[in-house]
Design a protein that fits this description.
The chain is mainly α. The chain has one domain. Helix content is about 55%, strand content about 5%. It is built from six helices and three strands. Strand 2 and strand 3 form a beta hairpin. Helix 1 runs antiparallel to helix 5, helix 3 packs across helix 5 and helix 4 packs across helix 5. The longest helix is centred in the C-terminal third of the chain and has 27 residues. The protein is globular.
Length: about 170
């Protein structure tokens, strides 16, 4: 039994610690787990919005050039793997695929990189999803998690990337 205020255990005491008398202090309310990460959702919202906005602003010229708006200049190729080996990597064509998807040219996007169509949809979905999560946290509700869907999408995107890359390699080698 606790005899003085100095003998009271902290609100978050480890198991087995004696509890204070019922009138001494209100019971501790456990924090939600995992704790809400408002900043996390704001960062993902900003990043997804920037990617979608850039995809809408940029354009594809021909098969290999991404054009910057206003200055009407093509960006240089950025794939270090392709520059060093001469072979495209699994992510080659992803930028052009995102831009084509944003402009509604799904056939072109699929030709550039099929995984880009799926990844663009995932990135675009982040905008309403993160807004929804921010609203839930601000109202004091817990976050929603889609763990099974997340894992399935991740595996699906990796399989599409690797399948596209292997198919591209076979056409280069034969």
């Amino acid at each position: 039994m606790l005899t003085s205020d100095t003998d009271k255990p902290p609100l978050c005491s480890p198991p087995g610690t004696p509890r204070a008398e019922s009138g001494d202090r209100p019971p501790a309310v456990p924090a939600p787990w995992p704790p809400p990460r408002l900043w996390h959702h704001w960062c993902f919202l900003a990043l997804a919005s920037a990617v979608v906005a850039a995809s809408l602003a940029f354009s594809v010229r021909g098969e290999d050039h991404v054009v910057v708006p206003i200055v009407n200049r093509a960006l240089p190729g950025t794939c270090a793997f392709r520059r060093i080996t001469g072979v495209p990597c699994p992510g080659c064509g992803m930028t052009r695929s995102f831009i084509s998807t944003a402009h509604g040219k799904l056939a072109d996007a699929w030709r550039f990189n099929p995984a880009g169509v799926v990844l663009f949809a995932i990135v675009a979905f982040q905008i309403p999803y993160r807004l929804y999560q921010i609203c839930r946290i601000r109202r004091g509700l817990v976050e929603h998690y889609f763990t099974a869907i997340d894992n399935g999408l991740l595996i699906g995107v990796v399989v599409i990337l690797l399948a596209h890359w292997i198919c591209g390699l076979t056409t280069l080698l034969w």
